[in-house]
Automatic annotation (TrEMBL):
Protein name (database record): Uncharacterized protein
Topology term for the membrane: Multi-pass membrane protein
Solcar repeats: 8-96, 112-195, 221-303
Membrane spanning stretches: 76-93, 113-134
One GO location term (cellular component): mitochondrial inner membrane
Key words, A-Z: Membrane, Mitochondrion, Mitochondrion inner membrane, Repeat, Transmembrane, Transmembrane helix, Transport
Native organism taxonomy: Eukaryota, Fungi, Dikarya, Ascomycota, Pezizomycotina
PANTHER family the UniProt entry points to: MITOCHONDRIAL NICOTINAMIDE ADENINE DINUCLEOTIDE TRANSPORTER 1-RELATED-RELATED
Family named by the database record: Belongs to the mitochondrial carrier (TC 2.A.29) family.
Principal cellular location given in the protein's record: mitochondrion
Length: 311
């Protein structure tokens, strides 16, 4: 993929992904906090109503509205960095797939999208897991809770002093398994975009009597396709997020011997519902987050070359 008006595609993808990560995090961070609390809660049966109880408890006991933005810094750093790296890796790998196949991106197979987005997810997870460990621990505990990290720097220091470098990679195994989420999502998104464009082209050709071409996606198109692909991927891969969160909390060393032990304990104590703790608020959270992320990403990617004055 070549950037427009002299801009390299790496610059376009990185800036668009970074901006999308920042904006989406600022919008949905409170819901992310509630989801994390639900995922690590082992004290009550999993049900949707628990999210309202947790929201009331946070507001009443941890400082009101401000408490819902605890852990914003690592979440902001993590999301912006992750999306910047992910889109950069994904675009580069997709270019390689196009060269290998000898055809444009919209003609790639579903398996090509799945493999390239999955590989991009693995690379991103390896580079950003330390950020997510700090973020999960800050979101899982109130500011006044015993052992809670008062800041990102404090969290990094405590993890290094008590657990060493290995502590920053807790939950990495389920995270690597979890790249399937992005793989399923982008596979669905890319194929939906292709079908949507072809359908629009056909309609324009039939209605106006001239050759059709792939249309430029509007905001409503992006909302519909990104939302559909996210719901599909979310329902398929949510359980890994629960296991990852359980392995990243402060007391994980005392509770679980590893990913498989966590899976066994959740299954034996909570049943299948335990793997879907927080799914309700997560679905509420991921749609706005996905919509904001993809709308900002697609918009910035389209407008960035002109806005730099290189048009």
């Amino acid at each position: 993929m070549t950037g427009k008006d002299g801009l390299s595609s790496s610059v376009v993808e990185t800036v668009a992904g970074f901006t999308a990560g920042v904006v989406s995090t600022l919008v949905v961070h409170p819901l992310d906090l509630v989801k994390t609390r639900l995922q690590v809660d082992r004290s009550s049966p999993a049900r949707f109503g628990n999210s309202l109880q947790i929201m009331r408890a946070i507001s009443a006991n941890e400082g009101g509205i401000r408490a819902f933005y605890r852990g914003l810094a690592p979440n902001l750093i993590g999301n912006s960095t992750s999306w910047a790296l992910y889109f950069l890796f994904y675009a580069s790998l997709k270019d390689m797939a196009c060269s290998f196949r000898g055809q444009p991106a919209h003609l790639l197979k579903s398996s090509d999208y799945f493999l390239t987005s999955g590989a991009a997810g693995v690379l991103t997870a390896l580079m950003t897991n330390p950020i997510w460990v700090v973020k999960t621990r800050m979101l899982a505990t109130g500011a006044n809770s015993p052992g809670a990290y008062p800041s990102v720097i404090s969290g990094v220091r405590q993890i290094y002093q008590t657990e060493g470098l290995r502590g920053f990679y807790r939950g990495l195994v389920p995270s690597l398994f979890g790249v399937s989420h992005g793989a399923f999502q982008f596979m669905a998104y890319e194929k939906l975009k292709t079908f949507w464009s072809m359908d629009s082209s056909t309609s324009e050709t039939q209605g106006k009597g001239r050759p059709g071409s792939q249309r430029t996606f509007g905001v409503l198109d992006t909302l519909a396709l990104s939302g559909t692909s996210k719901l599909f991927a979310g329902c398929v891969t949510y359980p890994y997020q629960v296991i990852r969160a359980r392995l990243q909390v402060l007391e994980a060393q005392m509770l679980y011997r590893g990913a498989m032990d966590a899976v066994h304990q959740v299954w034996s104590r909570e049943g299948i519902a335990g793997f879907y703790r927080g799914l309700g608020p997560n679905l509420v959270r991921v749609l706005p987050s996905t919509w904001v992320t993809f709308v900002v990403y697609e918009t910035i990617k389209a407008k960035l070359p002109t806005s730099t004055g290189q048009a």
